[in-house]
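Listing S7. Sequence submitted for prediction.
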Amino acid sequence: MDGSSQSEAAVTYAFDEAARRGATVVAIHVRQPGSGLMSASAMPEEIEEGRIRLAETLAGRAERYPDVPVRREVAVGHPVRTLVQAAEHALCLVAGTRGVGGFRGMLLGSVSQGLIHHARCPLVLVPAAPRTDASTHD
């Protein structure tokens, strides 16, 4: 979960499937480490920012899915490696993928491509909900 509005469809899919299967949702927000000493000193703030994004993304889910247990994690590392490792024993890995409309919207980003090649469990890539503003009709 990256806290973006584009991830909403993937979050909804994950909760719907967990509710159907009696499974737990493990919500993971991955922060990529920076370089140098500044990144080490900024790490507590980065972790806190990740917790805030998870809370915002999951707001209201407990009420809509009261029977779905949720575990929240903030991880620091490369998104593909971190998600593949976290999902090693999962029933499935659900990730969002962003499209920008037209042909480019059918392409997958680097994280999606990496998950396709390295995930050891079933992978579900959920596209972002189509945008309805005028900019998508160029």
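Caption to Listing S7: primary sequence and predicted structure tokens for the chain studied. The two ends are 29 Å apart (CA to CA). The longest strand covers residues 25-31.
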